[in-house]
Design brief:
By secondary structure, this protein is an all-beta fold. The chain is built from no helices and 62 strands. The chain has a five-stranded mixed sheet with strand order 1-23-22-21-20, with no helix packed on it. Strands 3, 4, 5, 6 and 7 form a five-stranded antiparallel sheet that branches. Strands 25, 26, 27, 37 and 38 form a five-stranded antiparallel sheet that branches.
Length: 759
């Protein structure tokens, strides 16, 4: 059903009669202080004005460990221009997130990019370091810069001039690990170039609208398949500029929030609408007192949701064998069913009984509902009839039941390993290796679940005000905002006080403001000038210290409203109230957490934001505190907590079992036996394998640990050879997370239990 509202008000301070009043609770104002700013440069010193949303990612090795990763401080990328000449393009600059110093030498003379739009940043070629994607009206190419500011690649554009410039978005549309670039004139593949062109659109986004595991592109009010075929077109009275994805109902398909800003003189053509995934209109607003409209933010503004976990994907280790075998990727649909053919081994697996990966032997089992599985015991070995394969799968369900497929009786040697589904996660994908007869290897992909995805508010800014709407299209509050220049200023969201409710960030001609999400009350105001286009403030945890920064751009070429120019980074002025649980990256104008991994890599199968955290342009990583692993081993003896220090070191004493564990040499938990091993750098660890069982010399203990690093290197401690009734489990650390605390159980001789807590 379509609902259409017309809101009229007298003066910008008035509210429509259709306002729905939110519950109000007084909260303390938010205190900010300047951390650093950038106001000028010795290179092109006249180019100091900024009027675009910056992007943030790691560009250099701050900690000197030889790698660029989440152990380093995130850096800021912006485009500066001279005077009022933003239409002529500007200089791409990179600033250190530590102090705002410039990172690049500009030995190449600098790279010119569109000064009105944000670049996009991500690791496009899989080398572990991000690239920066820019465009400009004066070039026939999309320029891809490396982390030092040099052009790494150029992609020929379908259009030139103004038809080729706009906000850039990045996505792996078809999940083939080759990244697509969504630009103003079309969709490009990083490796092959133009895929299809379309009419000019200022900002494009992507999402899987129809649930076929391939993302569509929404651009200028039109929905395109990844092939370029048109699915539908929203008929607006003017150009659709900006959009977001949200879930407002009980189905699994997204709704699309659209802004049609038109112009102040043509206010009747301006609208703010929510569309169903099939293009039909869910509701539409034409607010004559506040026409215009920039990018929207979607978050739990109006009430606290249950704790949530940011939607990030992680992978298990590879179980079994991959040598001389082809891999296939299997994505599970919403029913989470895994089909298995098995006999004396595992013959084939898949998400569809009619399209399995593997051989044709064995029999087809009843499907397994993976959403109800808590662990899988995977047995692999050398098969009696030849080759190395997966022999058996034991599925252990949350209700205590289990089912076995395949057999452990027909192998010369075998091993059984346990895969535990991480807490608050589910199995969303599977990679299977096979030579066409049996299954040789398996790897599982996890996605975190949320306890609630109810949207609590949609906010946008027009010419005269910031307006908050609920999911029914009813105006909740309106806060005056001075954007009579463009009517397209943007907004973003972040939970500054960690109360489960996001605040609204917005800037206008002379202010940056933080507004209470529930009421619109001003919680902080910072003097700051911009002549306004469609920029907005952002919050990013630059240092990864769980105390984020507010990043704001400024320009003062309009002398009537001039205050400052450049870029300003603020922090909490109250050390007892840090800004917690913020993203480490903001990689594009349409950032929404799920679109990019926290380390800058691109997910091959991006989790739908509307089914998980249900936010858009929010910096808040929900449920990021006290995320714990299961307890491995036994809760026997005294439990001690060991906080991981800034160097990330974990110390282990081991011999035939694990004797002691701790984060400092003077406070190890356990006994004095074994040998002190080389310290493990937990900042670089991606998985920890834990084995426990009945020790030959008495008791139940942790007998072995294996730490696997991001670079593939692994180190084993203890031994699996001196225990019976052993269980092996692996804890996979989600991307963007680090271990902040290790909980140890010990009776004083060996280590009995372990648990890891994440930031």
């Amino acid at each position: 059903m379509t609902s259409k509202y017309f809101a009229f008000a007298i003066g910008i301070l008035s509210l429509s009669s259709s306002v729905v009043h939110a519950t109000t609770t007084d909260i303390a104002d938010i205190s900010t202080q300047l951390k650093w700013s950038w106001n000028g440069s010795s290179f092109k010193p006249e180019s100091v004005q900024v009027m675009m949303t910056p992007v943030v990612a790691q560009l250099n090795d701050d900690n000197g460990d030889g790698k660029i990763d989440n152990g380093d401080v995130a850096d800021i990328i912006m485009v500066t221009f001279e005077g009022n000449k933003y239409a002529n393009g500007g200089l791409v600059r990179a600033l250190s997130g530590v102090d705002g110093s410039e990172l690049w030498t500009y030995a190449n003379g600098g790279v010119i990019a569109e000064a009105r739009n944000s670049p996009a940043v991500a690791d496009l070629d899989g080398d572990g370091v991000v690239e920066i994607v820019t465009t400009t009206a004066v070039s026939q190419y999309i320029n891809v810069l490396d982390n030092t500011g040099n052009i790494k690649k150029q992609i020929l554009k379908a259009e030139t001039g103004w038809r080729s410039i706009g906000e850039i978005s990045l996505a792996d549309l078809d999940g083939d690990s080759s990244i697509e670039i969504l630009s103003a004139d079309g969709v490009y593949n990083y490796d092959t170039g133009l895929l299809f062109s379309h009419s000019w659109a200022p900002s494009s986004i992507s999402g899987d609208f129809d649930g076929d595991q391939v993302q569509e592109v929404f651009s200028g009010g039109a929905l395109y398949q990844s092939s370029g075929a048109l699915d539908w077109q929203y008929q607006a009275n003017d150009m659709v500029w900006f959009s977001s994805l949200v879930n407002l109902d009980s189905d699994d398909s997204p709704e699309v929030v659209v802004s049609v800003p038109a112009s102040y003189s043509n206010a009747a053509n301006s609208s703010f609408a929510v569309l169903e995934h099939d293009g039909s209109t869910k509701w539409e607003i034409n607010n004559l007192s506040n026409p215009g409209g920039g990018v929207q933010a979607v978050a739990n503004f109006l009430g606290a949701d249950s704790p949530q976990v940011p939607q990030v994907s992680s992978q298990s280790k590879v179980f079994g064998y991959t040598h001389h075998k082809q891999s296939s990727t299997i994505a599970f649909t919403s029913d989470s069913q895994l089909w298995v053919r098995s006999g004396a081994a595992i013959d084939a697996v898949g998400s569809d009984a009619n399209s399995l990966v593997g051989g044709h032997g064995g029999h087809l089992n009843n499907p397994v509902d993976l959403s109800k599985v808590k662990s899988i015991d995977i047995t692999s070995g050398r098969y009696w009839w030849g080759g190395h394969h997966i022999l058996a799968l034991d599925f252990n369900f949350v209700d205590g039941t289990s089912t076995t497929m395949g057999s452990k009786h027909y192998a010369f040697y075998k091993k059984t390993e346990r895969l535990t589904v991480p807490e608050n996660s589910s199995i969303k994908g599977l990679k299977a290796w096979t030579a066409g007869w049996l299954i040789g290897g398996l790897q599982f992909e996890f996605a975190s679940n949320t306890t609630s995805n109810e949207v609590k508010g949609i906010v946008y800014a027009g010419y005269a005000a910031v307006d908050m709407y609920n999911q029914n299209g009813e105006l909740v509050w309106s806060s005056p905002n001075d954007d009579m220049n463009s009517g397209k200023i943007g907004v973003s969201a972040y939970d500054f006080d960690n109360d489960g409710i996001d605040e609204v960030l917005v800037q206008d001609i002379q202010r940056v403001r933080i507004l209470d999400g529930r009421t619109g009350k001003e919680l902080a105001v910072i003097a700051n000038s911009t002549n306004t286009l469609w920029e907005y403030p952002i919050v990013v945890d630059l240092a990864g210290d769980d105390n984020a920064e507010l990043i704001v751009v400024a320009n003062d070429y309009n002398k009537a409203t001039a205050i400052n120019h450049g870029i300003y980074v603020y922090e909490s002025a109250d050390s007892s109230k840090p800004w917690k649980n913020a993203t480490r990256i903001w990689n594009q104008h349409s950032f929404h957490i799920s679109n990019v991994n926290q380390d800058g890599t691109m997910p091959t199968s991006a989790e739908p934001s509307w089914l998980t955290h249900n936010t858009y342009r929010s910096s808040t990583l929900r449920g990021a505190t006290n995320l714990q692993s299961p307890i491995f081993g036994y809760e026997l003896g005294q439990a001690t907590k060991h906080t991981v220090k800034s160097d990330g070191k974990l110390f282990v004493r081991s011999g035939l079992a694990i004797d002691a564990v701790g984060t400092s040499l003077d406070n190890l938990a356990g006994g004095n036996g074994g040998a002190l091993r080389r310290a493990v750098d937990l900042r670089q660890v991606k998985a920890i394998e834990v084995t426990w069982g009945a020790y030959y010399w008495g008791g139940n203990h942790i007998v072995a640990l294996k730490f696997t690093y991001e670079n593939g290197y692994s180190v084993a401690m203890g031994s699996k050879n001196y225990a019976s009734s052993k269980t092996t489990d692996t804890f996979h650390i989600p991307q963007g997370k680090t271990i902040k605390q290790v909980n140890v159980w010990s009776q004083g001789w060996l280590v009995e239990g372990l648990q890891f807590e994440l930031n």
